[in-house]
Predict the structure.
Amino acid sequence: MDARTLDEEFQKRREEYFRYINRVKKSNLSGLYSVINTTVISNPYTSDFPKEWFLKERRNWTVFQLFLSFLIFYLKISLKLAIFTTQKIVFHLIWKKKGGESEILIDIFFLSDKILEKEKYDDSYFEGLYKVLEKRNLKYSFLPRIYKIGINPIKFIKLLLILQREDKNFVFDYELISFIDIFKILFQVSLYPFQTLLLLGKDKLLNYHLIRDIRNQSLEAFVRYFVGKRVAEMEFKKIVSWSEFQVIERSFNLGYLSSGGTGKIYATQTFLVYPSYLHSNIFEVDRELGYAPHSVLANGKHYLKNSLYKTGVAFRYKSIFNFVAEGQKKIVLMGSYIKSDTDFIIDFGREIESEIFLKLHPLYKPQDFKIPNNFQILSGNLYDIFKTSKLIITSGSGTAVEAVAVGVSVILIASQDNLTANPLVEFGKGEIWDIVYEKEELEEKIEQLSKFREENPERVSEIANWYKDNFFVEPTEENIIKAFDL
């Protein structure tokens, strides 16, 4: 089945898949081991099960596959647990700062490379929230999810020293998790592969992936469960969590709620959700099984799904509401945070005859790719690029919605090996946006969309306003207070 057919199948059967996986959740044993199971979570980037379910693949597991998954899992998790324990010891030697009392806990990613580069912590996830909290004299602490720290002890020490200088309150996993908890984690880790076998049933494809995906489990799934338990012993009234409803959020919520935590968990999905990100959807069954947040804050009214959801604020998209175009003429290739997708974008871009500009994701540098000599590299603010761009070419990226919402045309390049992460909806397709599956289609789509925007500027503006109204909520003080019940 090619990419086009896979995407068509996905669109037709997505709701059927949700019904299927929710039946799986209900029929299996509850508790940590099923809540964190990598296959059941349905993240297409940690399990091939969703893709193969839509492809209607047939699979049978083997004893060798079972042995290999067990071996990889135990080796990987043992190494990571050793690193975590070492970092915990280093943390206690370095960290001298005492946190103050707080009413609100902000559970959020700390991008270590960015902090080390700037030598300070500057949050971009909830920009605007902190001023409102401080204005209302509401004290808050951060629960950092340290991202990409690796095993470099110097890097870890430098990060701690930078954060120690900050005039902010922090609560770290390293201080919440005791050495006794580490032994409990080790015990749970040892049981996980065997507990996974208890989930096996009649569905051969599901069984195949349950066994294969054992190796994909992360240490954070177990650590965050105990972090949730320890936070439950503290007196936070609200927990504001950046939530893609990955394993780290699911296990934290389960640990917190099962231990009697009384604070209200706000799962903030104030980002652009892709239909292919099946794992990010939170259902009533998740609440029944004890690991759903109390409230899910969506980026816009388009994302409201059930009684758990309400509109939040689009913290990261403030620029959409005061955007002014300036001579939009450029065609820009927009790189993805997934390197292979950026390779595809560049490869497709070779087919374009007109002048081409390339904007790479901040994670990458030009030397990471084979870039044709006729490509001009762009840098700087995304919305400054939009001001002079008539067309953005990208893979599945939230940038596509941002572009359309400010009146820039978009061509999506379909994923070549997975479900296409298309954040747009049918509205405006063929007018302000479209999708291509083959290189040969690209020039034709560029010509069609360019011609349409020249001949129908009012319609382009109408579509842009519709996306802005449905996918975003302006992060005003009033809207922030309403979203977080302040």
About this structure: The chain has a mean pLDDT of 91. The first strand starts at residue 104 and ends at 111. The first helix runs from residue 3 to 27. Residues 1-312 form one domain.
